């Protein structure tokens, strides 16, 4: 099985740059899985995408995968490191899915991640540290992404938080929460 790494943090924190560093350090052929789609009419978005593209080494393969993430991961070769940037954009691309459909999509993704032989570095935004959005679609986005990040964090070999210009290895500093429904006890500092 490949290594699963989750890099999370707020906007403009450097999480993508840290994920790129980790992908380079893997020693494997890097496949950059871009979940964003370019919109030339939105100059600010277009500029963000260009900044990401210009940072990448030229020998990296880039795949545009706005929706079919599970299939892309399932096709990964063991000698590759996939850098998925970002889960927040992927969730936004699927936000119109009904809840039952979304739950199936997430279940398929998590099952696929557990079986992939390649290394995977996921980039995910932290969205739950602010106020609760005042509109239903904003709440759905926040809740879906937050839940997905939590579930991936449990599956990950290493979880990093990038904030305030620093990288924190949460796998060393913290303890994973038990899965929902686990009867196991939490092994925190007070145990």
Q: Within the CATH hierarchy, at the fold level, what is the topology?
A: Rossmann fold
Given the structure, what is the number of helices? 7
- How many β-strand runs? 7
The CATH architecture would be: 3-Layer(aba) Sandwich
Q: What is the domain total for the residues?
A: 1
Q: What oligomeric state best describes the polypeptide chains here? A: single chain
What is the CATH C-level name? Alpha Beta
Proportion in helices: 40-55%
Distance between the termini: 31 Å
C-alpha geometry:
globular
Order of helices and strands: EHEHEHEHHEHEEH
Q: Which spans have pLDDT < 50 for at least 5 consecutive residues? A: 182-191
The CATH homologous superfamily? P-loop containing nucleotide triphosphate hydrolases
Mean pLDDT across every amino acid position: 91
What about the largest sheet?
Answer: 7 strands, mixed
> SS-based structural class?
alpha/beta
Question: How are the SSEs placed, and which strands pair?
Answer:
Elements: E1 4-9, H1 15-25, E2 29-34, H2 43-55, E3 61-64, H3 69-74, E4 80-85, H4 87-93, H5 99-115, E5 119-125, H6 136-155, E6 158-163, E7 166-169, H7 170-173
Parallel strand pairs: 1-5, 1-6, 2-3, 2-4, 4-5
Antiparallel strand pairs: 6-7
